[in-house]
């Protein structure tokens, strides 16, 4: 190391000794500062590790919840699809029954309708002649056509020949 300005090399040995000791003290203090910084870094690193472990535990718990909820959602989805399929099947059956009833009803209307309804259409806009008993000629006794503002309509009006329904 160089001699400080104003000091002579030939000077007393105690000055050099003091200078060497001062230099050793400075170096040891710098080493202590470096070690202290390392300790601070390690403490900060350990603190970060603890926080990371806590967050990882929270994450694992949340992932477990997501898995449970996903399974529950899948079960509910399957139950919904099964119920929907059942409802669709019932709707299809009811629709088929309705179509069969309409076909059956139309067949009976055609069988019971008087001849002049085929000429004028099933529901003409003008009233069809009705006998005194309230029946059309050549019709079933349980069907009665009542004329109204919207035209004549088929309606079950009697239980038996000539008796009003109660």
UniProtKB/TrEMBL annotation:
Keywords: Coiled coil. GO terms for cellular component: cytoplasm; nucleus. Residues 143-166 are annotated as: Disordered. Pfam families: SPATA24. It comes from the Eukaryota. Residues 19-72 form a coiled coil. GO terms for molecular function: DNA binding. Residues 153-166 have a biased composition (Basic residues). The keyword Protein biosynthesis does not apply. PANTHER family: SPERMATOGENESIS-ASSOCIATED PROTEIN 24 (PTHR35155:SF1). This is Spermatosis associated 24. It comes from Callithrix jacchus (White-tufted-ear marmoset). The gene is SPATA24.
């Amino acid at each position: 190391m160089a001699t400080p300005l104003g000091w002579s090399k030939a000077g007393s040995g105690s000055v050099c000794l003091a200078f060497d000791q001062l230099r050793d003290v400075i170096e040891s203090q710098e080493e202590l500062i470096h070690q202290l910084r390392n300790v601070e870094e390690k403490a900060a690193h350990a603190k970060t590790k603890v926080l990371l472990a806590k967050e990882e535990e929270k994450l694992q718990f949340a992932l477990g919840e997501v898995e449970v909820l996903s399974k529950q959602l899948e079960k509910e989805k399957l139950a919904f699809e099964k119920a929907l399929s059942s409802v669709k099947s019932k709707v299809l059956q009811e629709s088929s029954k309705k179509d069969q009833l309409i076909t059956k009803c139309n067949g009976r209307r055609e069988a019971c309708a008087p001849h002049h309804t085929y000429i004028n259409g099933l529901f003409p806009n003008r009233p069809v002649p009705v006998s005194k008993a309230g029946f059309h000629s050549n019709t079933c006794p349980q069907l009665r056509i009542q004329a109204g503002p919207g035209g004549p309509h088929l309606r079950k009006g009697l239980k038996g020949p000539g008796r009003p329904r109660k």
